[in-house]
Amino acid sequence: MSKNFEFKRSLNIFKAEFKMRFKGTIIWLALIVGMMAMYMLMYPVIDDIMGEKLALMPEELLQIFGMSKHSVVDNYNSYFAMIYQIIFIILCCYGVSMGANALYDEEKTKSIEFLNSVQVSRLEIYVGKFLVIMVNLLILVMGSLITTILCGLVVGEGTVDNMAIISVYKISGITLFFFVALGFFLASFLKKDIKPSMAGLSILFVTYIIGYLGELVADKIEFIKMLSPIHITSASAIMDSTMGIGTLDYNLLPVAIITLLMFGFIVGGAVLYRKRDFL
Amino acid sequence: MNTIVIKSMTKYYGKNKGIENVNLEVKEGEIFGFVGKNGAGKTTTIRSLLNMITPNSGQASICGLDCLRQTKEIKKITAYLPGEVEYYQGMKVIDLLNYALSFCEEKDYAYVNKLCEYFELDKNRKINELSLGNRKKIGVIQALLKKPKVIILDEPTSGLDPLMQAKVFDVLIKEKKKGVTIFLSSHNLQEIEKYCDRVAIIKDGEIVEVIEMNGKAREKKLLVRYVTSDNTEQKYVYTGNINDLIAELNKMDLTSLEIKYQSIEEEFQKFYKGE
What is the distance in angstroms between the Cα of A264 and the nearest Cα belonging to chain B? Predict the structure, then answer.
């Protein structure tokens, strides 16, 4: 690190921001845990009633929800893959919005003037804010993971593979942090009149739709689904490959590319933020 | 010795001029006023000094430290009060001041308490419950708590009542006596006249005049206004010998006469006449 950077100062920002965001984080945690618990505890009912009906649904419709014919609710993990797809998209939206707003809101509300007046560099501000969003997201992910495992103990009926569930959280977590980094990157250079969270959410949904289209037109332009981080790290894709019944050739190369892009966005965002004009 | 030096600084926002070829020197231990209309370039100059915006060209330094490359060192010795004092909603005053203090190497909590008492600021109030004036007080306290060598203030007294304005300047004068250099922008020309050692007037992004407030040149600037018996009114600035002026006026048949030192307000207005 350069002499212009002292982690202690980033930590000061982290502590203050964490405290300020604490209520919001708790509300989000309650929402994610509540949704996850509600859906997962319904597994036995869904298994009985919906299993056969879902199996009759067209493949294309199932793919919208990140499912395939193979992964309809015949076990707890497959059901989790379906439910987690919803939670995953919510968390991705949360990540990109929070990432983008962490820097944007300071400028919009002019509270950045406070940080400009204290002895802290822009890099320290960037790192402190990045850390707090990452930790907040990690809290939500951990809440969701713990809920999934606990619900599995209650209603899993011996069809739970916790290692596979943890793999889903670990791999999809990279995409979550990728979207946080994207949010920071956008906020570091977009002008004040363009809301970076809207730009980030647009990118998220466009890439999501591209992934879905790639699945629909698998034979012709299948490669386009690789442009969608959500699709690459969807729970069903990871689960399918884990169970050896995947239709997507799941491998770590796309995840490595997402990771590299994530670091690119983090570093690029930091460089651009240091040069940004605070008007 | 000059504490703040700005050399040929220019900043354009796209095609719009912020400042152009600004040159300024602020001496150690002086209170330097910076006046101009809204949008004249005061805040752009201050933000360039503190590396909040990057100028297109030119250089600036504070205490010999380059404003672009040595921002961290500059922030260590420089206090800044922004024009718009917006803080984190829901945070208590004391929490914000402690947050500011957490970045200082020397944490003098007693001094913070003393400043809060002096400015009659309730530390336990939430910031979103405070008036603009009270938020301004937080800004002033925050600027002072790091015990700086240089204080840069953008509209320090806007929103404050006259008593509090006087209190702010009392503190600034005490700081000045300790050798602290103070650079402030203001629309309040009376306070500039009363407290500043020198004043720069900025118009359309360019410095048009730097005035010594207590200098001999300024003492010589007399504003003469008279009406003669045939109802002709004359108004002009006289810079010559005062006895010659009296002798000249003595020859006229006057119905009214006013002679006074030209105020900063009048000097300021001469640049904006006809706008």
Answer: 24
Residue A70 is classified by DSSP as G
* pLDDT (0 to 100) of residue A245: 42
- Report the C-alpha gap between A6 and B38 in whole angstroms: 37
Contact call for A116 and B86, based on CB within 8 A: no
DSSP classification of residue B120: T
ipTM score: 0.81
The letter for the amino acid at A232 is I
Question: By the CB < 8 Å criterion, does A202 face chain B?
Answer: no
Quote the tokens at residue B195. Answer: 């407290």
The residue that leads in pLDDT, A105 or B220, is: A105
Q: How far is A185 from chain B (nearest CA, A)?
A: 19
Contact between B136 and B144 under an 8 Å Cβ cutoff? The reply is: no
Q: Smallest Cα–Cα separation from B54: which of B99, B87, B9, B16?
A: B9
Per-residue pLDDT at B241: 85
- Distance set, CA A236 to CA A80, A81, B82 (Å): 9, 5, 52
Distance from CA of B152 to the nearest CA of A (A): 10
Q: Cβ separation of A113 and B84 shorter than 8 Å? A: yes
- In angstroms, rounded to a whole number, what is the distance separating the alpha carbons of residues A51 and A67? 13
Beta carbons of A111 and B87 less than 8 Å apart? yes
Structure-token pair, residue A276? 């940004």
B219-249 pLDDT, tens per residue? 667 888 999 988 889 888 888 888 888 998 8
- Distance CA(A12)–CA(A125), nearest Å, equals 9
Spell out the residues 6+ positions from residue A190 whose beta carbon is closer than 8 angstroms to its own. Answer: A104, A196, A199
